Amino acid sequence: MLDFAFSAVSLVAVAAWLMLALACAVRIGAARRLVLFVAGRGAPIFLSAVYLFVLVRYWGSTPGGGFQSLTGVQLLFAAPGKMLGAWTHFLAFDLLIGRWMVDDALGPGRSRLPLVLSLPVTFMFGPLGLLLYLGGRSLQRGWSRGRLATQ
User: Domain of 63?
Assistant: First the structure.
């Protein structure tokens, strides 16, 4: 059961990430909004519901487990149900960050260029991709300001 749930939440997340990338290429407003809703809202809501179910299902103490130390966290997540919850938590929140990045890049006067590398890095490494996106966006703004100043 846990292996099936792991595969299911992982598949939902991969499909949503592919849809987020597709949304950057889609030019039709209604189609883009639908893709962004499914990938950036529907999938995280689904993953959050799975997380809630897993949290309730596997609630309880793990002997020696807790959040007071690294060893306690390791023991806590050694329980497969709790690790599934943590995995689902990561998937949902990383996907929400990816959606924010896409929304930000698709805003008026913004470029999609910072998404090229940062979106797949966010998919694989979460916060590192966010830092990459924010750094790329800052560099791009600096270049734009520099160009405007020389004109």
Answer: 2-107
